[in-house]
Amino acid sequence: MVNRPATDFKHPYLKDLPHRQAWNMAWPMILSNISSPLMGVADTAMLGHLDSALYLGAVAIGANILAFLFWGFAFLRMGTTSFTGRALGADQPAHLQLQLGQSLVLAVVSGAALIALQWLIVPIAISLMAPNPEIAELASRYCHIRMSAAPAVLVGYVMIGLLIGLQNTRLPLVITVASNLLNIVLDYAFIVVFDWKSDGAAYASLIAELSAGALAVWMGLYALKRHFGTQLAWPSLSQLFNTQGWMALLKLNGDLFVRTSLLLFIFNFFTAQSGQLGPDILAANAILMQLVLFQSFGLDGYAHAVEAMGARALGAKDYPGFFKACAASATAALVMALMVAAVLAGIQTPLVAMFTDISEVALQVNTYYHWLIIIPLVSVWTYLFDGIFIGAGKTRIMLLTMLIAVFCGFLPLWWYSRPWGNNGLWLSFIIFNAIRGASLGRAFYTLSARDKWF
Q1: Does 410 map to a domain?
Q2: 394: helix, coil or strand?
């Protein structure tokens, strides 16, 4: 029986909001997200002191290619959080373990496919970036070394999704910090001590990623046993390869895969169009986009919180709990967005100076800096509703709203605003995020008013 009042979904859920629970879920993910770029920072810091810039350029290109490839499979993390949270709320450990087993199979097969196809994928990706032949060769070696960790990386996505779905965000923080620290130590050993240059950075990342995958599996199984104890019963092979279960899993993950691919397309299209506007604007937009991604780390923390809390409430058919989780996360995320915007506005001069001392680039960053202040106020709703809909398993709605935002928002607006140059490009990006947030918000209202969350 669904636990909810008769008709009005608006007002009864605005009292006694679970702010403490949302914060306890959010802050470890915020720290985890912020610590993630440390691997790249460590590589840059140590390679930047070698006698040639070729190695730094090769690692930058190789790391971007692998980040694009691996992040394309981020649906493994999101989908696992969704079904785990709902199975936890419904107290269905057998269903959770079945879908977890199928997700792990999918992760291993996908990772093996990346390894098998790397000799085709990597040369194409490097040729699109058009580096000089020396950098291309070094970048290719970097990618091939790190690609061996693909199954471990994707399995890690599944297990981190499991932990978040089990309402435990502290263990993902431990995994991230431990792997980053190991990477930094190995960077020093392989690059500075052994002088392996860009290959050293690749081997350091490879070992760190393999270790992170193993640690994620161990911690995920530990958390699962702690939650369900003697109820654990792993599925048989016939259950694991049941067609009906796979259809449901592939539908959920297929929607998320296409949605994530479209999002990656927008970021790469943005970079490509920046390059058409000149090298100074390309460099300035690269700095601004790094700051966009960095501010998203804090806002994403509450998206992860509402993913897990909302999924569990829906699994338990607890309507009040679901809306309270949404309201608590929304209010906290809005406060954080306002704080981020205010901080960005207040530290513009020192922040720009920290990123570049090239006067032409700094001038362009300052010219378009106002877009950076607007971004968190617009995109906070996108992140929040993404978390809600992922947790609820309403991935088809997410895909449809992404299609609308890309093909009815970003691309047409970019086309018509080309005479405005970089301002038109940034306006298109802002509207893209606004459409995503507004359309998901409308869908949230409709599903709630019509009792269609279950």
Answers
A1: yes
A2: coil
Residue 311 CA to residue 387 CA, distance in Å, equals: 10
343 & 447 share domain: yes
pTM of the model: 0.88
Q: pLDDT tens, 47-59?
A: 766 767 678 778 8
Cα 42 to Cα 151, 186, 222, 393, distances in angstroms: 24, 10, 31, 37
Helix 150-165 and helix 93-129: axis angle, to 10°? Answer: 140
Same-domain status, 233 and 294? no
Query: Are 343 and 372 spatial neighbours (Cβ–Cβ below 8 Å)?
Result: no
Same domain for 434 and 357: yes
Q: Which residue, of 181, 216, 241, is where some domain finishes?
A: 241
Beta bridge partner(s), residue 3: 318
pLDDT for 330-344, tens place per residue?
A: 999 999 999 999 999
Co-location of 186 and 163 in the same domain? yes
In a domain, 35, yes or no: no
Position 172 scores a pLDDT of: 94
Q: Containing domain of residue 187, as a range?
A: 48-241
DSSP symbols for 290-351: HHHHHHHHHHHHHHHHHHHHHHHHHHTTBHHHHHHHHHHHHHHHHHHHHHHHHHHHHTHHHH
pLDDT above 90: percentage of residues in the chain: 57
CA atoms within a 13 Å half-sphere pointing along the CA-CB vector of 126: 26
CB atoms within 10 A of CB 176: 25
Q: Kindly report the CA angle at 149 between 201 and 158, in degrees rounded to 5?
A: 125
| Nearby residues of 239 by Cβ (< 8 Å), 6 or more positions away | 98, 245
Mean pLDDT value across residues 161-171? 94
Q: How many domains does the chain have?
A: 2
pLDDT in tens, 83-142: 999 999 988 888 888 889 999 999 999 999 999 999 999 999 888 875 678 888 998 999
Co-location of 434 and 339 in the same domain: yes
Q: Are 61 and 131 in contact (CB under 8 A)?
A: yes
φ/ψ of 273, rounded to 5, equals -70, -30
Domain boundary among 215, 241, 267: 241
Same domain, 166 and 141: yes
Question: What single DSSP character describes residue 25?
Answer: H
| Spatial CA neighbour of 369 closest among 382, 356, 381, 380 | 356
Instruction: For residues 362 and 419, state if they share a domain.
Output: yes
The pair of three-digit structure tokens given for residue 282, joined into one six-digit string: 């390309």
